[in-house]
Amino acid sequence: MFEQTFKNLDDVLWKEAGCSSELDYTEQSSWILFLKYLDDLEQEYEQEAELGDIPYEYIIDAEYRWSTWAAPKKDGKPDRDNAKTGTDLIRFVDNKLFPYLQSFKESASSPETIEYKIGEIFSEIKNKFASGYSLRDALELVDQLTFGSQAEKHELSALYESKIKNMGNAGRNGGEYYTPRPLIRAMIQVVQPRIGERVYDGACGSAGFLCEAFNYLRYAPDGSSRPLKTDELDALETRTLYGKEKKSLAYVIAIMNLILHGVDAPNIIHTNTLAENLADVQEKDRYHVILANPPFGGKERPEIQQNFPIKTGETAFLFLQHFIKYLKAKGRAAVVIKNTFLSNSDNASKALRQELLENCNLHTVLDCPSGTFIGAGVKTVV
User: Fold this and answer.
1) What pLDDT digit, counting tens, does each position of 316-333 carry?
2) Is 200 helix (H, G, I), strand (E, B) or coil?
3) Domain spanning 3-148: which superfamily?
4) Core-most of 41, 78, 153, 199, by most CB within 10 Å?
5) Sorting pLDDT into bands at 50, 70 and 90, what band is 172?
6) What are 269-295's pLDDT values in tens digits?
């Protein structure tokens, strides 16, 4: 239904001088998709309020709503006479729209609200469209998309995932954003998350693990919806999936990816996970299920290493300690790590292997074939 629209959107972005890579294509389509989604969501909320004879207060002021600046209509058809384009459109987006949306971060009541997410997203990305005519074309294409039904969201989420996959295959850094979905699904089938449990990824990238966990809990293997009760569906959408991400673009993509899967206000925090001191972790902070593919090969600074009992500059080894600490007793975790972890003779590797064998119930080591991660150049295990 929407596949051709996504292809046409890619064509517009490919011709746009300000967008030069798959990362740019995904970033720029993400903020436009987000604002269209938000407008559809607000209209849905308004209709629900009208049915209950309750006045609805819009999150976005009238001047900045999608239906005002992005896709004005007259008698149900695009109103090209009143639609901004060219330089006027770029000036409005850069000088008015983005600053207005950024201000939500300061005025939001808490980081859990959709208002805070709006402010966070638009503080982290910039409009890269140089041509207001290209942006007008992109807006008119995205306006054709609708987010009303679960089936529509399901199709949009699959198309968005394919954009993330293309981005993941586009360059050396793509692995930061994309873990192959068959591997994720295999890991989820082993740990078997359940409704009522909290699922966590402390290096969530584009939220692939959390989205696949959502699909596992929401849909049966044949693709049909599971018969969830209202309170179970509410728990799945609001109190089940949690993530943290350090990088701005990955954070924005994670939010958009979860929204397209049906989570209206995702519990994703934009933070450096490793900056948290493990000595401060309490029982209320822990999770039933942890799924992750943390970055490896990094060199963490001494002040970050001080937060961990086993000191090392290797990013993945610090994340492994973080996950062990954040896992509830009798919880289940599946974590991707480079295979040299099994044989390295440095003190940190030996201490971590000892920790896993003595203080955890190590179930399985899955040796992934080379080429599991395109362009990564390193073998991995789960």
Assistant:
1) 999 999 999 999 999 999
2) strand
3) N6 adenine-specific DNA methyltransferase, N-terminal domain (1.20.1260.30)
4) 199
5) very low
6) 989 999 999 999 999 999 999 999 998
Encode pLDDT of 22-50 as tens digits: 778 888 988 998 899 889 888 888 888 98
Does residue 240 or residue 157 have the better pLDDT?
240
* Euclidean distance between the first and the last CA atom of the chain, given in angstroms as a whole number: 37
Q: Does this chain's domain 3-148 share its CATH topology with 230-381?
A: no
Is 183 buried (19+), middle (13-18) or exposed (0-12) by CB count in 10 A? buried
- CATH 1.25.40.10, domain 230-381, yes or no: no
Contact 249, 23 (CB under 8 A): yes
| 3-class state of residue 115 by DSSP | helix
Residues 82, 59: Cα–Cα separation, whole Å:
23
Tokens of 271: 């933070």
pLDDT at 362 over 80: yes
The dihedral over CA atoms of 270, 274, 278, 281, expressed in degrees to the nearest 10, equals: 10
Cα(160)–Cα(114) distance, rounded to whole angstroms? 20
DSSP string for 152-183: HHHHHHHHHHHHHHHHHHHSGGGGGT---HHH
* Both structure tokens of 86: 């060219």
Edge-to-edge strand order for the sheet containing 267-270? 267-270, 241-245, 199-201, 287-292, 327-335
Q: What is the rounded CA–CA span in Å between residue 291 and residue 32? A: 29
Segments making up each domain of the chain, as ranges: 3-148, 230-381
- pTM here? 0.85
| Residue 325 to residue 282: CA distance in whole angstroms | 9
Per-residue pLDDT tens digits for 191-204: 999 999 999 999 99
CA geometry: angle 356, 359, 365, nearest 5 deg: 30
- CB under 8 Å to 131, separation ≥6 — which residues? 16, 17, 18, 86, 90
Residue 247 β-bridge partners: none
- The residue to which tokens 């401060």 are assigned: 280
The rounded mean pLDDT for the chain is 87
